[in-house]
Design brief:
740 residues; alpha/beta; 8-stranded mixed β-sheet; 4-stranded antiparallel β-sheet; 26 helices; 12 strands; 58% helix
């Protein structure tokens, strides 16, 4: 191999290593800083939405800075950027600045302020790496194609994203993570310096100025749209599969990971996979879009897999279209700036606008429709091409036939759901859609009509029915809540669902039935026994706190003279339980309760010591775990607020995570005595009781002994050998996943 080729390969390797390192650090810092902020800001989704917007704003600013830097000579660019990196290094080691936040801190205001001051300069400096290093590579290689380096950039991003939950978080405490990232940043500075030495020494401004024709406004808008849809769909997929399919921890990593991998496929030098997936994307969107809207509730992981495949196919197809429409390298930074703007707009739409505008995850089918409108179309058969390309009435007759067929199928399905074209024959509906779709692929308007029909037929119309019904469904940043009435003897039941998880059930028909605690809170459950024992343990003036209001079921254990207060993070839940009249637990059992709004840990930290006798902790949203409520420091807060002989009840029922070791370790380290009850009701239909696991903790043996005297099913909680308890500095769910 000649010395010139060897140097060229070494140069390319050095630039690839630099762009990989920068992207790895960029996506490693996002979950890391979120983990650092958790104890201080709480676990509200509004916190993460605000943090996401901070990241996207800083990324957009970094891309704009890289675009501006292209106006000066390459060596001057290097000097300026190295100066920016060195100034940003003053914020090392990475971490949050010391700042005391008020109990009623608004995430929309405090999160940007806190994160901006803590990591803003570092994130800004690193975010400029991808477009800047690509432009430098083009200059250093004498005009080499820099776009393949973007594939390497996204591989680095994917590696950073996956490395945090799988390696960094399980193996290192937060302070160690901070020093690890800081060391990586110093390595990045050295790599950037090495790349700077490869830049031309005598290049004039004219050599770096853009010489190709500037893109028009329409082309820039197309770039933005092609970037917006996959970005928004990535977030919408995360919301959809965790709300309407399965709320499994770590599942949010997969949509973002596939989104990043799609860039690596779309911008790779080897084009066969990107071109293949782009050709079959219209078929995938049509078929999988209908399947995912119909849902397969009895096979949630199958549905989640379909949603993830659909996201990946759409992302590859639209990002490949972006690659095909890329400008010359001298316009590279402007191209990436438009992509960044599109990604930010997609995030704003899916994370901030949609929860306010829609009462269900309507952004999901809307973004699928938008993908169908943008994805390249190729006719499958020449006969259909002749029909849709005809200049006479033939194509309009074919279009009318498609519309009439869809209307007939929809009418039969909606008016006679158990008939030939109804739920019992969903496969036949699917075959009709497939036939129409294969005839329409290649022609944009007919294809969009068939796709819209599929989304409506397989689930869309059911969602619209609930949206039309006043009060049946409400959405907040915390999820989608649906109120359903179930007929039955003695008046039936009313149920509150959070996504696919039952959030509360109330018996209907009489005052006595409406005052009966159900589901996880039935009289035989762990919390039910503790509430019934409270008057004996603490007298008639017992002070009781509940974290998580739900439908207000636990309020029906309240007795005259007791003082109750609830801690609730979601205003929508308060409205459903107290204000709408849909559930009457509070109005029947505890009118005008004290409700503290906001994250429970932050609110409890501001409560007086020894102000509660019993505290029930039930703050789980579906099966997601609020880690900051389960750490050693959090249990210290509970212990301070509780009286010395007080009881702490923790609900640990979970389909995916075994939380017993977490509670056992916290109890052992905090000097608590812990017992557990696994309640398995003999009949689920009598009082709608549900199986539940509750742990009771107290620092007074007599309180635990009195509780165990009520039921022998209370068993001591044992510490798992080798398990490290959660702290604000260290926690991981990997060793706790069930079935792994």
């Amino acid at each position: 191999m000649s010395e010139t080729r060897l140097m060229a390969r070494w140069c390319r390797t050095m630039f690839v290593a630099t762009i990989l390192t920068g992207s790895f650090l960029l996506f490693l810092v996002q979950p890391m800083v979120a983990r650092m902020a958790l104890p201080r800001l709480g676990g509200a989704p509004a916190v993460w939405n605000s943090a996401m917007l901070v990241y996207q704003a800083l990324l957009l600013a970094g891309y704009a800075y890289a675009h501006w830097l292209g106006r000066v000579r390459p060596r001057a660019q290097a000097a300026i950027h190295l100066g920016v990196l060195i100034v940003a290094a003053l914020w090392l080691p990475i971490g949050l600045i010391a700042m005391d936040l008020p109990a009623d801190a608004l995430p929309a205001l405090w999160v940007p302020w806190l994160l901006g001051l803590s990591i803003g300069p570092l994130f800004f400096a690193v975010s400029a790496q991808a477009p800047l290093i690509q432009r430098w590579f083009s200059a250093a290689s004498g005009g080499g194609d820099p776009y393949a380096l973007y594939a390497a950039s996204n591989l680095g991003s994917f590696a950073g994203l996956i490395a945090y939950p799988l390696l960094v978080e399980p193996l290192m405490a937060v302070h160690g993570q901070s020093w690890l990232w800081s060391g990586g940043y110093l390595l990045l500075v050295l790599l950037v310096l090495a790349c700077a030495t490869r830049l031309p020494r005598t290049a004039a401004v004219d050599h770096v100025a853009a010489t190709s024709a500037p893109p028009g406004a329409r082309r820039i808008a197309h770039w933005i749209a092609l970037a917006l849809v996959p970005s928004g769909l990535m977030l919408a997929t995360s919301t959809y599969i965790t709300t309407d399919i399965v709320a499994m921890p770590l599942l949010w990593v997969l949509p973002l990971g596939l989104y990043l991998l799609s860039f690596s496929v779309a911008f790779a030098n080897d084009r066969w996979l990107a071109d293949l997936l782009t050709r079959i994307a219209p078929i995938t969107i049509l078929l999988f879009g209908g399947i995912i809207m119909g849902g397969v509730n009895e096979r949630p992981f199958f549905s989640a897999g379909i949603a993830l495949v659909l996201l990946f196919m759409i992302s590859v197809a639209l990002h490949t279209t972006l690659y095909r429409k890329r400008p010359a390298p001298d316009r590279l930074t402007g191209f990436y700036l438009a992509m960044s703007a599109g990604g930010a707009l997609g995030g704003v739409f899916a994370a901030l606008v949609a929860p306010v505008v829609f009462d269900w995850t309507y952004e999901y089918p809307l973004l699928i429709l938008a993908a169908g409108a943008l994805v390249p179309q190729i006719y499958l058969f020449g006969q259909f091409r002749n029909i849709w390309m005809a200049k006479g009435r033939t194509k309009w007759i074919a279009l009318a036939a498609i519309i009439v067929t869809l209307v007939v199928v929809a009418g039969l399905r909606i008016t006679d759901p158990t008939g030939v074209f109804g739920e019992s024959r969903q496969g036949l509906d699917f075959l009709v859609i497939v036939a129409l779709g294969f005839a329409a692929i290649g022609a944009r308007l007919p294809y969009m009509i068939v796709l819209a029909g599929a989304l409506v037929l397989f689930g869309g119309y059911r969602s619209l029915e609930l949206s039309i019904d006043p009060g049946a469904r409400v959405r907040s940043y915390f999820g989608v809540y649906t109120v359903r009435d179930q007929p039955g003897p003695y008046g039936g039941t009313r149920e509150l669902d959070h996504g696919t998880t039952v959030h509360g059930i109330q018996l209907r028909g009489s005052v006595e039935r409406e005052r009966t605690p159900t589901t996880y809170y039935a009289a035989g459950s762990g919390v039910g026994q503790a509430m019934l024992a409270a008057p004996k343990l603490y007298g008639p003036a017992a002070r009781i706190g509940v974290v998580g209001l739900g439908t207000g079921t636990l309020s029906c254990y309240a007795r005259a003279g007791q003082r109750w207060r609830f801690y609730e993070i979601d205003p929508a839940v308060v409205r459903i339980a107290r204000d709408t009249g849909q559930f009457t637990y509070l109005s029947r059992c505890l009118p005008n309760p004290e409700i503290r709004m906001g994250d429970a840990r932050i609110a409890l930290a501001h409560d007086a010591s020894n102000s509660l006798d019993l505290l029930a902790l039930d703050a789980f949203s579906s099966d997601s775990v609020p880690m900051h409520l389960m750490t050693r420091e959090a249990f210290a807060t509970y212990g301070r607020v509780l009286s010395h002989d007080g009881l702490l009840l923790v609900h640990i029922s979970n389909r995916f995570i075994d939380l017993e070791p977490v509670i056992a370790a916290a109890a052992h380290e905090g000097g608590w005595i812990a017992v557990e009850m696994k309640y398995r009701p003999s009949s689920l239909l009598v009082d709608r009781a549900s199986a539940s696991d509750w742990v009771a903790l107290s620092r007074n043996p007599r309180a635990i002994a009195a509780l165990r005297a009520t039921d022998l099913d209370w068993t001591p909680l044992t510490v798992r050998k080798g398990f490290t308890g959660w702290t604000d500095d260290y926690s991981t769910i990997l060793p706790l996943l069930k079935g792994f």
